[in-house]
Amino acid sequence: MSGKEAAKAKGQAQEQKKKGTYQKWHRQGQTEGKKKDPEAIPVLKYGPSNNYTIFKEALSNAALKEYGTLGKLIKQGEEFEFPQEPNVDEYDLEDDPYGINKATYIEDLKEYRKEVSKMKENGPKLYGLITQYLSQESLDEVKRQDKWEEIDEAADPDGLWRLVEETHKVNTISKVIAVTKLAARKTYKGTRQGNFESIIAYKQRFNAALKTYNDQKNTAIEEVDIAMDFFSGLDDARYASFKAEIVNGLTAGSIVQPKDLNAMYLLANQWLKTAKSHPTGLATPFNTTLDLQDPQDNRKPKGDRKQKAKGG
């Protein structure tokens, strides 16, 4: 191979390498840029740091969408009731000269049988959906339960879901009621916003901890106190000024205490948006960017806006 041919081959190899590197990073950028599917079901984890509440919500949405009435058992748990066969005695067939009551009874019986048939068909499918998203640790714990073999043999989604709830409902492996209640209280009181966690993600975790707290039948918390607990857990690095203004305003009586969690969440979320738009620190937690913007400015050319800002 001549010197020119070698140089040409080397140049082609370098160009191909650059192209491959670009394609690699381009594909990676495309992957990273994809938004998380809000309907995705996470794999259920087992142990003190489990994600049971988030898992249940996602699974419930999928089950309702795919299996209708049967899907309700994920959301309702122990309160779920299977359809009941119509009671013929409730239709007063003896006093039915025109046969209307009898026709109604027959129609209701058909609907009942149709619904039961559909639920029997979808039962194994829902069973498979639940097991599909159990981690190996979660599945192992479920298999340790006394009724597992009977439930697995019948592919019974109702029985399986009861086992999942019994083993994952609280963030502790203990089965002692006093311990599970304590774990729920500690989790709720210890819920704090992470340094890089969005307020939306923080609220979801806070709601999950609150639900677990209530599910364990701990002492009920007033709505205003729940709001203040959420407020207390906000990240100090981003919300220090907000916290100071709220506390000072409440102390001085110049603001009304947010009545519930949603009110506090909206207030904090609006404040952060405003603070980002006003880096000088002149923003207040009681105005949004829309509140501070002159609506007339939106209809003026940029040049006019600059002139107005200069006082012209």
The low-confidence runs, each spanning 5 or more residues with pLDDT under 50, are 21-33, 280-303, 305-310
Quickly count the helices. Answer: 14
Whole-number average pLDDT?
80
The biggest beta sheet, please? Answer: none
Q: Which H/E pattern describes the elements?
A: HHHHHHHHHHHHHH
First-residue to last-residue Cα separation:
74 Å
**Helical residues, percent:** 55-70%
What Rg, in angstroms, do the CA atoms define?
A: 30 Å
Number of DSSP strand runs: 0
Shape: extended
Estimated structural class:
mainly alpha
Hey, roughly how much beta strand do the residues contain? under 5%
Short descriptors:
312 residues, mainly alpha
Plain-language structure description:
The chain has 312 residues and is mostly helical. Among the domains are: 52-168, no CATH class; 196-291, no CATH class. It is 63% helix and 0% strand. It has 14 helices and no strands. The protein has helices spanning 3-33, 52-67, 72-76, 100-132, 136-143, 148-154, 157-168, 177-189, 199-215, 223-232, 236-252, 261-277, 289-292, 302-309. Helix 4 (100-132) crosses helix 7, helix 8 runs antiparallel to helix 9 and helix 10 runs parallel beside helix 12 (261-277). 20% of the residues are buried.
